[in-house]
Amino acid sequence: MADHPTDVSTAAAGPGPASPTGRATGLRPLGLDAVRLDPAGLLGRWQLRNATATLPHCVRQLDESGALDNLRRAIGEVDGAHVGMRFSDSDVYKTLEAAAWQLGRDPGDHAAREFIRSTSALLARAQEADGYLNSYVQSDPSRSRWEDLEEGHELYCAGHLIQAAVAVVRAGAGSDLLAVAGRAADLAVEVFGAGGRDAVCGHPEIETALVELYRATGRQRYLDLAKRFVDLRGQGLLGENERFGRAYFQDEVPVRSATEVTGHAVRQLYLLAGVVDVAVETGDQQLLDAAERLWESAFQTKTYLTGGQGSRHWGESFGDPYELPPDRAYAETCAAIASFQWNWRLLLATGARRYADEMERALYNAIAVAVSADGESFFYSNPLQLRTGHDGSHEDAPSQRLSWYSCACCPPNLARLIASLQSYVATEDAGGTQLHLYSAGSVRTSHGQIDVDTRYPWQGHLRLTVRSTRSEPWTLALRVPGWCTAVTVSVDGEPVDPATVDRAMAEGYLRLTRSWQGSSTVIVDLPMPVRLVGAHPKVDAVRGCVALVRGPIVHSIEQADLPPESCLEDVALDVSAPITVTDSGEGTLVPVTVTAQGLLPTAAGSSELYGAYPVPPAPLTRLRLVAIPYFLWGNREPGPMRVWIPTVPAPSTTGTPLSESKEKS
Amino acid sequence: MADHPTDVSTAAAGPGPASPTGRATGLRPLGLDAVRLDPAGLLGRWQLRNATATLPHCVRQLDESGALDNLRRAIGEVDGAHVGMRFSDSDVYKTLEAAAWQLGRDPGDHAAREFIRSTSALLARAQEADGYLNSYVQSDPSRSRWEDLEEGHELYCAGHLIQAAVAVVRAGAGSDLLAVAGRAADLAVEVFGAGGRDAVCGHPEIETALVELYRATGRQRYLDLAKRFVDLRGQGLLGENERFGRAYFQDEVPVRSATEVTGHAVRQLYLLAGVVDVAVETGDQQLLDAAERLWESAFQTKTYLTGGQGSRHWGESFGDPYELPPDRAYAETCAAIASFQWNWRLLLATGARRYADEMERALYNAIAVAVSADGESFFYSNPLQLRTGHDGSHEDAPSQRLSWYSCACCPPNLARLIASLQSYVATEDAGGTQLHLYSAGSVRTSHGQIDVDTRYPWQGHLRLTVRSTRSEPWTLALRVPGWCTAVTVSVDGEPVDPATVDRAMAEGYLRLTRSWQGSSTVIVDLPMPVRLVGAHPKVDAVRGCVALVRGPIVHSIEQADLPPESCLEDVALDVSAPITVTDSGEGTLVPVTVTAQGLLPTAAGSSELYGAYPVPPAPLTRLRLVAIPYFLWGNREPGPMRVWIPTVPAPSTTGTPLSESKEKS
């Protein structure tokens, strides 16, 4: 490829986020315009809401928060001191990236195009001659470049600039921003490349960005720098972090020898996305193995049922294995997004279902919950429980979604993810096409077109119309989610043979290999009974509790659905009672509700905090217990919520049968 | 009383910490030399260890950490910049206070006397002419007085200076330091007194100190300023705390209208100690009511089984009601000490047992655990669980006690408490003498002398020899701890009548009123079976778990007592099996151990973090489960620990009887 950014072709829509070059093996992402998500489906509706509400809201907030003015300030167009976080530029970049993906799915979005144009021009003006661009440093002559790599976030911001520029190019919206990003990247290569300073940024992000820039430009030096950053990290090049320790920024152990995800969750996860990118582009199996090993640490010991990660507010960190408190879950929105991105890269590299499963889990729960129904307020932290009496006065753990944050990393991160959501739905390789996520819409690959008619995730029925002009056989691979214990499939009315289905249950993908020439109808049923889910016994924080999960969707109970005089913390679930599902159809805030049998004490119990065990059972009264999708909580009225519900009776135990106390009530 | 500090009589030993004037109603503390704790008993041994190990260690650390040099720096005796926390002076003051109490119990401790002498002289030199004394501000001309009341800790430090000076006077060790403290207090009166600046310190502490200074000097202005600080707090005079909110320093709601303990636990608790002090000296019932109301918030919803308080590392705060995670318990040592001090003041004011109960709970658990067996290393945070795989690399949550901390508030706080421990054992009033805490030793009051022969808290048998020259009757009141469900008492071999015992069980004190002239023997038996304790159902974090408690002592299980190949997190407790107690006598690290029936899975379970509920029961094998006093954990080898143990079987439930799976193993 040519070396000058303006030579890069920007005419047609390119691929979405994380698009490995041909050098990488594995699945290939599709072009931005290859998948259309229908607004009749949930993912399509999210994209529409993102386009009409979230993204415009973010653009407004960039003005109101002063993030754009910070850039103007750096070049004297606006007076006054830099405001907000020192990485406020990254809010601008992530919003730019969101606008680019939005333009990729809707080239007619003039507001997005105009935002990209004007902001790219501002950035070009603000950039110094040698490529340096950081409003926090530039706006105050007493500040020096790269003087605080631990907390300065300069390379982190450069990374987001690069990702935005790559998105703009892939969306076919010109290469002006890529020129800016290329100059910033070239400066990073000059300062930190081989022979330069041995250093890393306190907040990983530029690693994955540099690989993406390599992919967009073909310039090896960006890949080399990304690999260099990956390899330099973990050697203690960053200073000691007095408050949180060196693990905070993953500078304690090199990733190749690490066995546990540690420290600041978003930093760890962005790093791991970059690690996979470097691994697949350099064919570095050791590095890919490290990423898969750390995936097991993350998903077998340090992930919430919602896909959220990061158990501690303190240091925004992963915490110890099995330390997963629902009430104090930090589960930062950005961490869930980073996890989604990391899993996407591992899915492309390996094709293994477990990565798509975790994308889906995070998407419908930890990510989706972060946006209000109207798309204009957000959670930063995504706990699985909010207590009666919670002090929500501080944005660290508010009682409701807020319209913006002093540290505004999450909202534009949501915007960029949702704007590019169609990119994550399907892939292809030489053998065929793979569908990973299901929502109403259509998928076009080199093998053919697949129209998806479904109300997934509300119902597990999929009707796929496959059209192909190819006579030679290819494989349509359909993900059977890990939560699914039975599946039925037919093609043009003919049931698929049991051996294929059995293999699908074991391997995770239903592989239908045939000539698809013409038009075929594939019917898939993924039954969605409500599942009572328990946690590993080592997860102390939710012992004796269950969660109600249906399909990919975790449910929660809210004070809003209880009798006014009752207290959510008093509610228990009768696990032996039947559970029903009510599908109200589209067009309602909560399309599908789950109703279980709850139990409430009929009298106030002791106010003693500790007492003789066992606590005498209270007489209980039955209660219709309505659970709604966790991601929809907090959209009606503020109040307590919980995902994990105490059970009555507990399993595998002896004692007084519950029915005795129930019948007293 | 005279107005000049040097006029204060310092010849004889005065009272201990928190000594209300005659104006206050309630119980009166005894003189420092009125109680002797025998080193054969646990409290006496702690005092001896404190005198020979902890206090000398703290004195050494003041040198090594640079805290003393900071004061020398302030007046140019040493070069260089101030080191450590900006409130490092308070480490010096608390150590001074500890040395004073130590001198009060052992006037022959020349090292303590010399430390007080030389350090008082240094402070007198360092103090500015108008009374200002703060090494952080004085050591750098660019810093100004009182410019950052939120975080500057200047009045906090002044408070600890005052407390140290009061202790020195009460110990009969001269009034040089009181002169320094009086000048500092007079400056505070000038700047912040009525007509001066309306402001409060971000960290309460000076309130209780000023009342104590009023008690030691009789100067009304100190009491007035204390009351003023109490009344000004909660009006938002402090700036917004960006990270933790205004509740962080209790500046959100005035204490008179507050209904919940909130924010930074130590700040809240020091404030409440001062609130009680002001209330009793001014006869302000509304203020005392507020303290008792907040006590209920604290002890009914926000206190660990160990008496520890402060559930969050983030903001070192109390957290929401019932938010009591054992693993992430912050439970700062200083908070437990502050709680002890607050309860002591409430006990003096009201005579109610519940306050003595909480003193005892904190003392034997949350406070005692903070010191290593050798007295020279300390916990700052006192969790009730340490997990396998815990990252203890950071002092925020270390895996073992540390010899000192960058924020060194806790070790000298322990030293001052333990040095004055005898002061908290007994009180008197016009009607008689009250014994609140039991340990081998002797108590002398105006009514007579009581020699206490007991191995409490290891055994509940007390033999009291009461000697009195008074012929008129007086009441010997003996606390019956709240954990005690039966008590037997005899005087000179005659059982005490059942009505008196019944009243004692209800009221909390066994009141024996008679003429005690001559010598009498009182035998009390407080039976100490091992109690299985459960938490209120709203304490989600320990659902399905029990704790093993005996007398006032909470127990814990440690990896050190398990077979090497086993994992502490796999252990469950068979609550239906017998529990035995082994008393190895004194002279061993763990005099009394509790042995219960544990259960361990015989095979590794699923590594899945979440799965179908209920998780199939694993075959279990029996295990001798040794529990030791929680306060002694971490004295053998580092490793996992837990107080709350999962139960098998759980109570009041149905299902497969446990015995089936047990018999498989």
UniProtKB/TrEMBL annotation, chains A, B:
Under the heading InterPro entries, the entry gives: 6-hairpin_glycosidase_sf, Beta-AFase-like, Beta-AFase-like_GH127_C, Beta-AFase-like_GH127_cat, Beta-AFase-like_GH127_middle
Give any single GO term for biological process: carbohydrate metabolic process
What segment(s) does the record annotate as region Disordered?
1-27
Question: What is the top-level taxon of the source organism?
Answer: Bacteria
Compositional bias (Low complexity): 9-26
Q: Which residues form the Non-reducing end beta-L-arabinofuranosidase-like GH127 middle domain?
A: 434-528
Non-reducing end beta-L-arabinofuranosidase-like GH127 C-terminal domain residues: 530-646
Domain Non-reducing end beta-L-arabinofuranosidase-like GH127 catalytic residues, every copy? 35-422
Question: This chain belongs to which protein, by name?
Answer: Glycoside hydrolase family 127 protein
Q: What is the lineage of its organism?
A: Bacteria, Bacillati, Actinomycetota, Actinomycetes, Micromonosporales
